[in-house]
Amino acid sequence: MANITLKIDDELLTKARLLASNRKTSINAIVRKRLEDFVSSDQSRQAAIKGIDSFHRRSNARVGKKNWSRDELHAR
């Protein structure tokens, strides 16, 4: 595993250490988990975009010029 260096405000670090201690974990574990979640959420988003794009390409839906009026849509 690689090591990284972060610059963090002293007060923030003190509060984070206290919170981590209360949760019986470490700052390292918290940062690692947040980074994993960050990357995972982006990968999920990218997969969703690819799925939507693939669906659109396979569908027969066509986007064209509007040929109706508001009154036509709401006619009863």
Structural class: mainly alpha
Which regions have little confidence, pLDDT < 50, spanning 5+ residues?
none
Query: In percent, how helical is the residue content?
Result: 55-70%
Question: How many individual β-strands?
Answer: 0
Mean pLDDT comes to: 90
Shape: elongated
Q: In angstroms, what is the radius of gyration? A: 25 Å
Strand composition percent: under 5%
Spatial gap, N to C terminus: 66 Å
Alpha plus pi helix count: 3
Give a quick account of the main beta sheet: strands, pairing sense, barrel closure: none
Order of helices and strands: HHH
Structural commentary:
With 76 residues, the chain is mainly alpha-helical. 64% of the residues lie in helices and 0% in strands. It contains three helices and no strands. The protein is elongated.
